[in-house]
């Protein structure tokens, strides 16, 4: 019965990682940029959701949509201001800029509202179901559902819509896509908008499930989501989902064996191992560079 | 050219003379003060009018300004009361406040100013252990008593070499004591025999409480069935809580700070852990109630310095007086400790019969059964007060006075 409970715990934790990793992996898949500011967009999303519920008295779904909308705008602004002019620069320059943007958002938020944490209002019914002796909260089921639904929507957008086709074309070869009449800038903006909206949704889900939100809350989940994305195969959307869940379960097991202070270390050991033995991730195929 | 120089020189001379005159004035008043403070010991006092100077070296700005401000409010009330009642042997208390900006180096500077420039008889402060330790050398060299209202670390009164700092005292209990109180409360009042400990592994405060809880609880006949740790800033505690639940404890002790404790309690209740939880004064924040939710907090207890809801007469008199002075504000633990510090010191000065540092220090060390708001104080060998701790219970998000536990 304990083990069922632990697996439930792991899946709940993992679905948060998966939710953040979706946006991460998408941005990487299309423009090959590791967007370290993603975790901070997630934090902004959580605070927008918080203020939407506390100050504007919105209910859950409108607050979620507002948070996704503002996060999307923030994502596009970040891309336009910080990354666009570096599109032809070295990868390392873009990476360092991303870290700078991340710090700017974190400490900008602290400057604006202070560093004290807030308790997210409980807007969703919090019921506990008993299954085989394990307690499952309705909120964790809801988060898992949100992750799966958003993943399906994302798959649909990327594979079935015109903008998705443009994204895939840009990811394959941006120059050729431009020659084919695809507006590359607009496609990249759309990628950031969707990825950041997902981060915003994850922020609100996190607030509902874990209650405490604070300006530096995006740092560790952001890194974990990066690990999850690499684990599943960076750039592959179902891979982010699987990577997130696997990471959540592994971390929970580490705690379940009584080594909870080693949990974060375990996540990064996984990152190192996967980079050594299977750099393309669980779902990745080993492709040879075409000449 | 010459003229200008001349006028400059004369200007310089005039200002120099003024400055020297000022210095002489200062020196004069300083001397007369020194004379006054020696008088009670010698000639038996020359009547009222003179004052006893006490420094307050507090965090009035900076990171922990709210602690310092609260203590200052308590001090002001106590001084006002004592002076209204005629002072100590006819001498009024005079408080000289210095802001140490929540900074250890500033605290040292403030102590130097208070001892050498203001020539105070004693210093109250600082609020934190670190800012208090920073003053120890200065007050020892100057034979001035230092009394911290709320520095709870054991190293404040006892140096690294295990020797007691002669001139340093405190009004609050020390960290390990809270662990003892919690263990006694669990064993004797709640009558549980199997306890679990879930401690913040990144904080000395939490580790100190955990160790003393374990010692006392096992001595009282209980057993520790599970010992787990978390790291500050964690947000997911479910895995470890499931592990603790499997060990079937009847009671869970969580020394730590409110940010994590709030989440731990919420998640524990979701996992169906219904046993009582307990912690120390690190829980004491309105944020705890917001994070955990009022319902989840039922059946949890904390040890604290005092409760404004304690029906005890001393406490209720203080609460009424405090509300009267500060527009109906209910006094918190720091207000009470600041207030008590003045009374503890006043009692020492009275028994010493002198405002001389060495004599006050000896008198303070012999303090016995002094009834204060935060409990009846007896100063022990280590200059720590042996006193009662208050146990509070959370009921629907409110702290309710439960009981007092003796050491």
TrEMBL record, chain A:
<feature type="transmembrane region" description="Helical">
    <location>
        <begin position="59"/>
        <end position="78"/>
    </location>
</feature>
<feature type="transmembrane region" description="Helical">
    <location>
        <begin position="132"/>
        <end position="158"/>
    </location>
</feature>
<dbReference type="Pfam" id="PF02653">
    <property type="entry name" value="BPD_transp_2"/>
</dbReference>
<feature type="transmembrane region" description="Helical">
    <location>
        <begin position="188"/>
        <end position="210"/>
    </location>
</feature>
<dbReference type="InterPro" id="IPR052157">
    <property type="entry name" value="BCAA_transport_permease"/>
</dbReference>
<dbReference type="InterPro" id="IPR001851">
    <property type="entry name" value="ABC_transp_permease"/>
</dbReference>
<dbReference type="InterPro" id="IPR037294">
    <property type="entry name" value="ABC_BtuC-like"/>
</dbReference>
<keyword id="KW-0472">Membrane</keyword>
<keyword id="KW-1003">Cell membrane</keyword>
<comment type="similarity">
    <text>Belongs to the binding-protein-dependent transport system permease family. LivHM subfamily.</text>
</comment>
<keyword id="KW-1133">Transmembrane helix</keyword>
<keyword id="KW-0812">Transmembrane</keyword>
<keyword id="KW-0813">Transport</keyword>
<keyword id="KW-0997">Cell inner membrane</keyword>
<feature type="transmembrane region" description="Helical">
    <location>
        <begin position="90"/>
        <end position="112"/>
    </location>
</feature>
<feature type="transmembrane region" description="Helical">
    <location>
        <begin position="6"/>
        <end position="26"/>
    </location>
</feature>
<protein>
    <submittedName>
        <fullName>Branched-chain amino acid ABC transporter permease</fullName>
    </submittedName>
</protein>
<feature type="transmembrane region" description="Helical">
    <location>
        <begin position="265"/>
        <end position="284"/>
    </location>
</feature>
<keyword id="KW-0029">Amino-acid transport</keyword>
Automatic annotation (TrEMBL), chain B:
<protein>
    <submittedName>
        <fullName>ABC transporter substrate-binding protein</fullName>
    </submittedName>
</protein>
<dbReference type="InterPro" id="IPR000709">
    <property type="entry name" value="Leu_Ile_Val-bd"/>
</dbReference>
<keyword id="KW-0732">Signal</keyword>
<dbReference type="InterPro" id="IPR028082">
    <property type="entry name" value="Peripla_BP_I"/>
</dbReference>
<keyword id="KW-0813">Transport</keyword>
<dbReference type="InterPro" id="IPR028081">
    <property type="entry name" value="Leu-bd"/>
</dbReference>
<dbReference type="InterPro" id="IPR051010">
    <property type="entry name" value="BCAA_transport"/>
</dbReference>
<feature type="domain" description="Leucine-binding protein">
    <location>
        <begin position="51"/>
        <end position="397"/>
    </location>
</feature>
<dbReference type="Pfam" id="PF13458">
    <property type="entry name" value="Peripla_BP_6"/>
</dbReference>
<comment type="similarity">
    <text>Belongs to the leucine-binding protein family.</text>
</comment>
<keyword id="KW-0029">Amino-acid transport</keyword>
